[in-house]
Amino acid sequence: MRILVNGDWRDTAAQLLSAVLEELGYGQSVVTTAVNGEFVATSVRPCTQLAEGDRIEVLAPMQGG
Amino acid sequence: MLHLYESSLNSRLLLGTARYPSPAVLKEAVRTSRTEVVTVSLRRESSGERAGQGFWSLIRELGVLVLPNTAACHSVKEAVTTAHMAREVFGTPWIKLEVIGEDDTLQPDVFGLTEAARILCAEGFEVFPYTTEDLVVAERLLRAGCQVLMPWAAPIGSGRGLNNLYGLTALRAHFPQVPLIIDAGLGVPSHAAQALELGFDAVLVNTAIAQARDPAKMAAAFAQAVESGLTARLAGPIEPRDLAAPSTPVVGTAFTG
């Protein structure tokens, strides 16, 4: 399945958001996620099923004004 | 004391954390500014780089409150989703709500802003809207549930100071009980002092400090300026007048006949 992660296309065999993050190496990083523009809380990542072409955002704390 | 939702603060200076030459300089500027609130943001994190993890550790070490923003959001949808994501990561209901309407000036899209504010306030967020000095927009934001307003002084990063004195003074006069924080466009400490002298409750400064030759020293200068401006406000400044009024008593002046 091909999905878009932070603007880059990725091939993955994983079906769940939590598994994709693990596969991509985010591990225990403090990140927050959205799928197709909708916020997905950490607690529901393990039951969030992904589909071909989904757009995933993985964001982390950053400097801001 | 400055009361922002349920928090009471001593400092009248909020500090942005972007554009510093290094994390060490940022840390020193936070110390010399004596701020109690810093603004933060969210950006895409690559799994290899992990830049955000180090930044978040540094902010937590500082022991200050964080005010996450929705910078770079151009729509209500983007801003609301970013706010949800920020609440999860930063663990605060505070959100500095920015909905940008124009890229050259980074002027707020006040229509999108009021709509996003309505949604987020209804969801329990404590919204700090980045807005203009427009009185009607301010009224709508308050009606939406905002308890703080953040009017711009000038375009973000421009360093031009209080661009529309009349409009900002009118805003202050119309909403005497609402905490008003000047956000964006300040360039030098005298701008901050002027804002406090006019009765604004606090200022948020980023570029003017971060891009100064010596950010820590400039942060200290802004800290002194807001204290000076607040003290002057409390002391009751005189009203400006058009003609001279002699300060030396004229009674008993020699050679007057």
Chart the SSEs and their pairings.
The complex is a heterodimer of chains A (65) and B (257).
Chain A: E1 2-5, E2 8-11, H1 17-24, E3 32-35, E4 38-40, E5 55-63
Parallel strand pairs in A: 1-5
Antiparallel strand pairs in A: 1-2, 3-4, 3-5
Chain B: E1 2-4, E2 7-9, E3 13-16, H1 23-33, E4 37-44, H2 51-62, E5 65-68, H3 76-90, E6 94-97, E7 100-102, E8 107-108, H4 110-122, E9 126-131, H5 135-144, E10 150-151, H6 165-174, E11 181-183, H7 189-197, E12 202-205, H8 207-210, H9 215-235
Parallel strand pairs in B: 3-4, 3-12, 4-5, 6-9, 9-10, 11-12
Antiparallel strand pairs in B: 1-2, 7-8
Helix pairs in contact in B: 1-2, 1-9, 3-4, 4-5, 7-9
List keywords for this structure.
heterodimer, A: 65 residues, mainly beta, five-stranded mixed sheet, 1 helix, 12% helix, B: alpha/beta, five-stranded parallel sheet, three-stranded parallel sheet, 9 helices, 12 strands, 41% helix, globular
Description:
- The complex is a heterodimer of chains A (65) and B (257).
- Chain A has one helix at residues 17-24, and strands spanning 2-5, 8-11, 32-35, 38-40, 55-63.
- By secondary structure, chain A is mostly beta strands.
- The mean pLDDT of chain A is 95.
- In chain B, helix 7 (189-197) links the parallel strand 11 and strand 12 (202-205).
- The model of chain B has no long low-confidence stretch (mean pLDDT 96).
- Chain B is 41% helix and 18% strand.
- In chain B, helix 1 packs parallel to helix 2 (51-62).
- The chains are: A mainly beta (65), B alpha/beta (257).
- The A-B interface holds A 6-7, 24-26, 29-34, 37-39, 41-42, 57-65 and B 16-20, 26, 39-48, 50-53, 55-56, 59, 68-69, 71, 77-78, 81, 84-86, 88-90, 156, 184, 204, 206-207.
